[in-house]
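F.,

This is the one I mentioned.
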């Protein structure tokens, strides 16, 4: 997975080891969240962990990356000591992780846990720092105002919050979204010096 993130970094930022490897940061966050969610929901921890590590391994395939990632898992996992009877569940969870929101919920617990963990890692304060790191790694000129404008333009996050499947993820997503919105307000108020009047 590390190699896949470095190949993606080379394509995105022109170097294998950029100052911030967004994909690696994202995937490691997803693994942590997915394993915790598996524990809290009773999902199969081995399936969830493998799916979390591999879910974006074929990210370069863009909107086909869930299918391509699933194919990779079906080929790669049999070469490891991963339990063979669980490989198809890993592939199916990876296949189902597309999209920032869903019209209809997923019906398999391990797929739900991967989806929730993947999206939790894209909202809240994590999104602020990952996005900022990404912009810096690209080396494009940016300003605090640019970041605020981009950050404020995130209506999709409300839909993501509403699409969460598991109870702990739903709760965390709502809190993360509130913290996210509050951050932009506080930042603007600091820049305006609102706190000097108090
Ligand atoms: Fe993905
Ligand atoms: Fe992801």
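My design for it:
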């Amino acid at each position: 997975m590390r190699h896949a993130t470095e190949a993606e970094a080379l394509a995105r930022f022109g170097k294998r080891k950029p100052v911030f490897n967004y994909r690696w940061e994202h995937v490691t966050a997803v693994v942590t969240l997915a394993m915790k969610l598996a524990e809290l929901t009773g999902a199969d921890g081995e399936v969830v962990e493998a799916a979390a590590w591999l879910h974006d391994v074929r990210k370069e395939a863009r909107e086909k990356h869930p299918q391509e990632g699933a194919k990779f898992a079906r080929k790669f996992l049999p070469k490891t000591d991963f339990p063979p009877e669980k490989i198809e569940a890993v592939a199916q969870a990876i296949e189902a992780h597309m999209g920032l929101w869903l019209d209809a919920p997923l019906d398999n617990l391990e797929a739900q846990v991967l989806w929730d963990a993947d999206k939790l890692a894209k909202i809240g304060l994590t999104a602020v720092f990952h996005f900022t790191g990404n912009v810096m790694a690209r080396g494009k000129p940016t300003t605090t105002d640019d970041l605020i404008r981009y950050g404020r333009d995130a209506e999709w996050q409300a839909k993501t919050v509403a699409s969460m499947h598991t109870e702990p993820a739903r709760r965390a997503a709502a809190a993360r979204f509130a913290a996210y919105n509050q951050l932009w307000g506080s930042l603007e108020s600091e820049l305006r010096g609102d706190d000097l009047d108090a």
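Residues 26, 30, 55-56, 118 surround fe (ii) ion (ligand 2) (CB under 6 Å).

Talk soon.
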